[in-house]
Amino acid sequence: MSDASNPLGEYLRARRELVTPADAGIPVLGVRRVPGLRREEVAMLAGISADYYLRLEQGRDRNPSVQVLESLASVLRLDDDGVAHLLQLGADRPRRSRRRPRRESVPTGIARLVATLGLPAFVEGRYFDVLAVNPLATALSPRLVVGANRLRDVFLDPAERDLYPGWPEATRRLVAGFRESVGTDTDDPRFIELVGELSLASPRFRELWARHDVHAREGTTSLLDHPVVGELRLNREKLAVGGADGQMLVVYHPDAGSDAADRLAVLASSALPAAKDAAR
Fold first, then answer.
1. pTM, full prediction
2. 21 and 136 fall within a common domain
3. Same domain assignment for residues 78 and 203
4. Do 63 and 128 reside in the same domain of the chain?
5. Which CATH number is 27's domain given?
6. Which H, E and C letters describe 17-72, residue by residue?
7. What is the distance between the alpha carbons of residues 109 and 153, in angstroms, rounded to a whole number?
8. Which residues contact 133 (CB under 8 A, 6 or more apart)?
9. Which long-range contacts (CB under 8 A, 24 or more apart) does 192-200 make?
10. Which residue, among 195, 78, 81, has the nearest Cα to 128 in the 3D structure?
């Protein structure tokens, strides 16, 4: 079955393949033909029958109990975000018909806040579209403009890739955050279009998407190699926008007194006058 029709089974299978027998305390005897754990091994460790686990992976049983899901989460070594995602996938809910994607609109107050902040800031939508951005954020990355998509840029634009010395880890977190943002709404037309496009165009995205990693969209430290001011180690905050489902206010800020603070000030001094001239 496809990922859209059987998300619970796809998730269980993907995570099962990432757990080694050694992780689970299972001795390896002879040659194993499958990556990770076998289905019957997962079932045994979770305390359920092998037939029942097979039905879950194949999508023939879609309503496991919370107790079963939590047992599976333990066997599959899921973190808190992974457990929450698994419980969400296993929740009993009516099937919704496909609908046209809604246009995301940034609340007026948030748009004004982004424009007046003296730090690089932008609003990221549910599909990681850039919905609002200030000039300093665009100076940080010219790809940060309204209408751009962070997934497309980070995976498909070489200049954006060069901005991240830790690109492999940055992409891992990005894809895990995207899966968390979409949740169980895998029949969403925009989601299907975006995942299909990136899967065809980027082997790295295809590899990460197959892992089914899930991670909350949250703050972290971001290391950037800027072509003008050099290395910038910035704190990146992601703050949920109230009343706007899935939108996040993203703000970059340096530690006080750091080299990054000085370099960001240099970037601001060149970027902001240019932005004012363009607005005239």
1. 0.75
2. no
3. no
4. no
5. 1.10.260.40
6. CCCCHHHHCCCCCCCCCCCCCCHHHHHHHHCCCHHHHHHHHHCCCCCCCHHHHHHH
7. 27
8. 114, 121, 122, 123, 144, 145, 146
9. 192/4, 194/127, 194/149, 194/151, 194/152, 197/152, 198/151, 198/152, 198/155, 198/156
10. 195
pLDDT in 10s for each residue of the chain, 280 residues? 344 478 888 889 888 888 888 887 877 777 777 778 888 888 888 888 888 888 888 888 878 888 888 888 888 888 888 888 888 888 755 555 445 556 788 999 999 999 999 999 999 998 999 999 999 999 999 999 999 999 999 999 999 999 999 999 999 999 999 988 887 677 778 888 898 899 889 999 999 998 888 888 778 899 999 999 999 999 999 999 988 888 999 999 999 999 999 999 999 988 766 555 555 5
Residue 250 and residue 140 in one domain: yes
Residue showing tokens 């050099």:
230
Judge whether 189 lies within some domain: yes
Last residue of a domain, one of 89, 122, 151: 89
User: In the block, which residue shows the tokens 């290391």?
Assistant: 223
Where a domain ends, among 42, 58, 89?
89
Domain residues for the domain of 250 are 108-279
Q: Are residues 37 and 154 part of one domain?
A: no
